[in-house]
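ok so i was messing around last nite and threw this chain in just to see what happens. nothing serious, just curious
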Amino acid sequence: MSSSAPKERHILTPTDSTDTSFRAQQYQKGTLSRAQLLPSAFAQFAAWFAAAQAAHVHQPETVCLSTAALPSGAVSSRFVYLKELDTTGFVIYSNWATSRKASDVRSNPVASLAFWWQEVERQVRVEGPVERLSREESQAYYDLRARGSKVGAWASEQSSVLREEDGEREVLERRVREVEGRFEGIEDGEIPVPEFWGGIRVVPTVVEFWQGRESRLHDRFRYTRVGEGKGEGEWKIERLSP
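result:
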């Protein structure tokens, strides 16, 4: 019988050491009960988001967006910013032509979002189908962006390879200069949103609210949309085992 060599560990966080500094952090900042929940997942999220802001959570709009390609089922994730929440869903903006998430969504128009607010020891997970915003809706947000960000959206073929033999970063910077020249003399508010860039809305069918508790006995409540359609609607609320 052959024996395999032990694997080299680059990161190790043991939990069976007598050194308590290795033990996982205990969450003790709050509890969550059914009596604290609002009937609507949208209203509950808005309340928690406001609480995160009041607690000075660093950039609470930061969210992990996950998508999956079909037929492979390969999942990809990245951090983006939540820019809007209405009674239809959660809105983010990005490149929808060349990016990995664009490719995923074309084959499988479903996504998940995960928020982590360390300062209040809370998570929120969102699952649901995605839909593109209209060009008019995307232009309204695009008009609010800094000029450099507008130029960057036009210049970057997001996720495409910048080849070493072509100059890598210099290729991107050259495109930026070309776009700056194209829009020279044009007011910020007159720069059009690119056809390939804009917002998508994740229309939630499931939203989970997670409050950290001691000994990993967390409080978890899942909102599941009842019936079809969009808007506030009706939600089934269930407590989940941690």
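not much to say yet. The mean pLDDT is 92.
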